[in-house]
Amino acid sequence: MSTSTFFLDLRSAYQAELDDLATDSEGRDVLRKRLTEKRKELGFLLQMMEISPEMVAVVLHQAFRFTSPAMMDHVLAQDADELPEWDSISAQIEIAAWARDMVKTILAQPMGDWFMTLAAALEYMHHKPLSAQERAQLAGPVNKDEEDQDEVRNERHDDNHTEDQDEADARAREDAGNDWMVEQGFDRKD
């Protein structure tokens, strides 16, 4: 089952949001501190739940434990208007004790049910490597020869994942995040 374009696009935005929170201007790891601050702003952030769900979903980073990967893979194949109800998937997702009050607050919102399904899917996807098919979807259509070459490269990548590729992946995520920020009206980060 392949990941929908909706979730592939949100994956990049979610990763960019986490990357933005991860380090300060001096390169120090401040993710935990910034997530704590963001969680305190949940009331304000809920206003952005429908427009920029990835910016709100980060408050639930590391709040989920998934007991049914197959179910989550099915969720990732859906578009925004096809997401299953939270009640239909929540029994297969354990919520960390520290996040339970936030989840209650979110579910009390008009779009809370939809958002919880989406937030869980984003977090699940964050911890799942991109498949060759998903990388191809992100790259866009290619001709058959290029597709065959990409498949060989992807197989090599899967067999011999190197730190160079990790750095290239990180740069690609950062570029995607910068592109998204520009689309939102911000200046490009140098």
Question: How does this model look, in words?
Answer:
This protein is mainly alpha-helical and 190 residues long. It folds into two domains: 122 residues, no CATH class; 52 residues, no CATH class. It is 62% helix and 3% strand. It is built from eleven helices and two strands, in the order ααααβααβααααα. The chain has a two-stranded antiparallel sheet. The longest helix is centred in the C-terminal third of the chain and has 21 residues. The radius of gyration is 17 Å and the shape is globular. The relative contact order is 0.15.
Strand order in the sheet with the most strands: 1-2
Largest sheet: 2 strands, antiparallel
Calculate the mean pLDDT score and round it.
84
Helix coverage percent: 55-70%
Shape: globular
Number of domains: 2
What class do helices, strands and sheet pairing give? Answer: mainly alpha
Please identify the oligomeric state: single chain
Number of strands: 2
User: How many helices?
Assistant: 11
Cα radius of gyration in angstroms? 17 Å
Low-confidence stretches: none
N-end to C-end Cα span = 37 Å
Beta-strand content estimate: under 5%
